[in-house]
Specification:
The protein contains 4 helices and 9 strands; from the N terminus they run βαβαβββαβαβββ. The protein is of the alpha+beta class. The protein has one domain: Cyclic phosphodiesterase (Cyclic Phosphodiesterase, Chain: A). The strands form 3 sheets. It has a 4-stranded antiparallel beta sheet, covered by helices on one side. It has a 3-stranded antiparallel beta sheet with strand order 4-5-6. Strand 8 and strand 9 form a beta hairpin. The protein is globular. The N and C termini lie far apart (36 Å).
Length: 181
C-alpha cells in the first residue's frame, strides 16, 4: 500500500512531437485537466508492476533507470484505437504493436527497483480521458470514433514523473533509451 502523502510515480515513455501536440489537443477537447500533463505511454504506475515503493533514494532510482534504459533500444510505435479500461471512466489509446512495450516493462520490472503491488495487468496505453464519464452520448461516440494519426513515431526517452495532484506533474528523472547501445 502507498504511504499517505507520497504522490504516485509513473515511469513512462515520452511521446515526441508532433504526436504529443495531437494528444494534448485531444485531451484538451475531452479532459481539460489531463491536457496539462505530458503526452506519454505508461510503463509503470497505474498498472503492471505499479508505483515505486517509498524509501528508495533518487540516486538509486536514477542508476536503476539508467541501466534499464541502456537495455531498451529506441523504437517506433503507432497508436491504434480508443479503448476504455473495464469498469472505469479511463479512456486511452492502445498501441498497434505492444511487443516493444512489454519488453520495456519487463526490463524496468527487473532493474532492481521496488514497486508496490498493482491489481491490474500491464496494458501499454496513452490516457486521453481520466475518471470523468463522458458528458453525453455524443462525447462518448466522439471518443470511440477518434482516430489517431496513422503514422509511426519514435520513442527514445524514458521519464519518471510524480503526480502530486491530478492536474500537475513533476519531472523527477529523464534518460535516453539505448544510451550505451
Amino acid at each position: 500500500m502507498r504511504e499517505t502523502g507520497i504522490p504516485p510515480t509513473y515511469i513512462v515513455l515520452d511521446v515526441p512531437s508532433p504526436m504529443a501536440e495531437w494528444i494534448q489537443a485531444m485531451r484538451k477537447r475531452f479532459d481539460e485537466e489531463r491536457s496539462r500533463l505530458p503526452a506519454e505511454i505508461t510503463l509503470t504506475g497505474s498498472n503492471g508492476i505499479g508505483f515505486l515503493s517509498p524509501g528508495q533514494s533518487l540516486e538509486f532510482i536514477a542508476n536503476c533507470l539508467r541501466r534499464a534504459a541502456e537495455q531498451i533500444p529506441p523504437f517506433e510505435a503507432e497508436f491504434g484505437n480508443v479503448e476504455r479500461f473495464e469498469n472505469t471512466d479511463i479512456y486511452f489509446l492502445n498501441l498497434i504493436d505492444e511487443t516493444p512495450f512489454l519488453r520495456a516493462h519487463e526490463i524496468v520490472a527487473n532493474c532492481g527497483l521496488r514497486f508496490e503491488p498493482s491489481p491490474y495487468p500491464y496494458q501499454p496505453h496513452c490516457t486521453l480521458k481520466l475518471r470523468k464519464p463522458p458528458k453525453d452520448l455524443q462525447e462518448l461516440l466522439e471518443l470511440f470514433l477518434l482516430q489517431a494519426p496513422r503514422h509511426p513515431f519514435r520513442l527514445d526517452l524514458l521519464s519518471l514523473y510524480s503526480l502530486p495532484t491530478p492536474d500537475t506533474c513533476d519531472l523527477i528523472y529523464k534518460v535516453e533509451l539505448g544510451s550505451s547501445l
